[in-house]
Amino acid sequence: MSLAVRTFAGALGLGLGLGVCAAAATAQLPRATPEEVGLSSERLERVGEVFSTYADEGRLAGAVGMVIRRGKVAWVDSWGLRDVASGDPMETDDLFRIYSMTKPVTSAAVMILYEEGLFFLDDPVSRYLPELGNLRVADHEASNGPDDIQTVRADRSMTVRDLLRHTSGLSYGSFSNTVVDQAYRASGLLGWSTLEELVAALGEQPLVWQPGTRWHYSLSTDVLGRLVEVLSGLPFDVFLRERIFEPLDMDDTAFYVRPQDRERFAQIYGHAGRRGGPLTLEVADPGGYTPGVTRFSGGGGLVSTAQDYARFTQMLLNGGELDGARILSPTTIDLMTTDHLNDDGASFLGNGWGFGLGFTVKNQPALDGMPDSVGTYYWWGVAGTGFWIDPVQDLIGIFMVQIRPNLDLNFRDQFKRLVYQAVID
Asked: Do residues 400 and 385 make contact, with C-beta atoms less than 8 angstroms apart?
C-alpha cells in the first residue's frame, strides 16, 4: 500500500515529556529533570520540534527518542504515528525491530562465556564449529561469477575475535555484491531457519577475504549466536533470556512479539523515489516476529523498546552491572570498547572510527563532524534505529524509528547532533 506524503499532513508529534510519559516507558530506570544532569530543557525542545516536523511532512511515520545521563532518564519523547493506516500515535513504550542493534547484545553474550573461561579470543572458530574449518578464499580476479568461483588457500583460520570485529572473511549477501555475496543469494543460504543450518551452509561457501585482513560487514554475529549455543548447551534465545534479559528486566526484548503486545508493534515503512524528490511512504514489512520462530538471528533478529535497550546500554556504561545484576566485568567492557582493527580497512565506519568487539569505537575527535567524545561507541539497525554511549559525557542516546529503505537524511545523526547541543554541563 502506498501512502502519499499528504497522508501525514497534520499528524501530531506527540511529545511525551518526562513528567507525562507512559509509566511503563521508563519505570525501570531512575529519572531526573534535564537540568539535574547538566542538560537544557529548552534546548531539548528543539529535538521535538524537528522530529514533529518530520512526522508532519511525512519524512517518517513516527519515532521515539530517549536520553540518559549520569544514570538517569532525563528526557523521552515520541512523534508521529505507530501505524499510519489506523492513525495510532507513536508511544514511548512501543516495540521496534532493532535489526543490527541485536549485534551488541550477541557480543555481550559471547563475552559472558569468555569470562567463564570457555574460549580465547584468538582460538580458531573451527575448534567449536568444525563446519567452518578448512575454508578457502575467493580469488576475485580469476572468478567468473557465482557458478565459477576460483579460490585460494586461507592464510589462517578465522578466529572468535574475527567474528566479533567483522574480519572473519564472511560476507552478508546484501551489503556488497562480490561473487561470494552472489553465491550466498543463489544458494538460498540467506533463507536459513536455524543457526545450525546457517553455519553448515556457510561451510559450503568460500570466504570473501582472507581472515583478519579487512573489516567486512557480515553474518559473523549470527555465527556467534551458534557459538553461544555450542559452548553453553542452550538455544540462543534461551541463553539471552536467562543471562541478559531477565537479569536486566528487559521484559519486551525477544525474537518475537507476544500476541497481547502486537498493538504496540510499530509498522515499518520505506521511502520510495529519489533523495530530495517527492517522498512516499510504503508499508514494507507487515508480518513476522510471531511466537514459534526458530530463526534466532544474532545479527539482526531482536525486537525491543527504547526502555529495554536503555537498560542494556546503561549496564554497559556502568561497567557491566545494573541494579545489582552483574552481566560482565568492567575489564571486559573495556576490552570490548577498545579498537581491535588498527588499520584502514574500515572505511564503511567513517573517519575517526574503528571497531571493537561488537561496537564501532571513536578514535579521533571531530573528523566525522560530530561532537561526541573519543571513546564513544555505538551501533545501529537497518530500519533507522540507533544508540550511542559516551563514557566521557556519561551520556546515552537511543533513537527508534521504522523506515527501510531511507532515501532522506540520516535521522540518527540528526537526533545525536540535537541531543549534544543540549549539553550545558
From this structure: yes
Contacts of 23 (CB under 8 A, 6+ apart): none
Reading the block at residue 288, the C-alpha cell is 513476522
Mark the ranges of the chain whose per-residue pLDDT is less than 50: 1-27, 276-277
| CA neighbor of 222 nearest in space, from 255, 250, 269 | 255
Residue 208: domain span = 106-237
Got the DSSP string for 316-330?
HHTTSEETTEE-S-H
Beta-strand ranges (E) seen in 46-87 are 62-69, 72-83
Helix (H, G, I), strand (E, B) or coil at 137: strand
Backbone angles phi, psi at 84, to 5 degrees: -70, -40
Alpha carbon distance, N-terminus to C-terminus of the chain: 47
List the one residue out of 306, 291, 265, 290 whose CA is nearest residue 29: 306
Closest by Cα among 183, 175, 109, 120 to 146 = 183
401 occurs within a structural domain? yes
Amino acid at the residue 320: G
CA separation (Å) from 208 to 150, 258, 281, 385, 410? 11, 38, 35, 28, 29
At what angle are helices 220-232 and 102-115 packed, to 10 degrees? 40
Report the alpha-carbon distance of residue 163 to residue 232 in Å, rounded. Answer: 18
Cα–Cα distance for residue pair 176/172, rounded to 1 Å: 7
pLDDT tens digits for 36-66?
Answer: 999 999 999 999 999 999 999 888 999 999 9
- Statement to judge: residues 269 and 409 lie in one domain: yes
pTM for this prediction = 0.93
* Domain total of the chain: 2
Exposure string of 153-174, with b = 16+ CB inside 10 Å and e = fewer, is ebeebbbbbbbbbbbbbbbbbe
CATH number, domain containing residue 404? 3.40.710.10
Say if CB 237 and CB 210 are below 8 A apart. Answer: no
Q: Is residue 425 part of a domain?
A: no
Q: Are residues 409 and 23 in contact, defined by beta-carbon separation less than 8 angstroms?
A: no
